[in-house]
Amino acid sequence: MMAIGDYLRRRGYRVVLPDLPAHGLSAGTRTSLIDCAHAVRDVAMATGPIRFAVAHSMGGLATLLAGGGSAPMPSGYPFQGYALLSVPNLFQDVTRRFGSDQGLSDLAQQDFERRLERIARRRIETFTGVQLLHDTQRPALLLHARDDAEVTFADAEAIAAACPTAEFMALDGLGHRKILYAPPVARAIGAFFDRQAQGND
Question: Which of 71, 84, 104, 114 could form a disulfide with 60 if both were Cys (CB 3.0 to 4.6 A apart)?
């Protein structure tokens, strides 16, 4: 996130770049999406007011959960808008891909998903980017590369189609991670946040 953060800082925004639990310099070796959502909310509460959030991949689902405040969060953080890069739609697609990579049997996969449901206090089928963005009731900019091999481009198309407040920017040749360093991406995020800030001032 450093390239995007530095661009926004030079544009005049105050930028906070946290490492999620068990990521980067944060402590721990294990985490969950719910842990990450709590961390996003806690950092925003401690350093706020934070107007906008930028998130990548699974961090997008965690950030939307932190903003929307649905179960199991105690409440949401009032971000005014989101820039979501390469964000999956169906969390169940992620868990099934993980299970396949780990060689889980059908029974083990079911047990794994039931455990996740207990942690999240919701059915895994309802844990979607569409639903989490809807819960925030805030605008979002979706940025996704057509050649993303980790989160399919169809995920972004599904979220955009179901969320009328979402703007959608399709990109080519940036895969799942190069999107974080592409100057047009940073410029698009900055312009989106500027428009949102002007609309709310």
Answer: 84
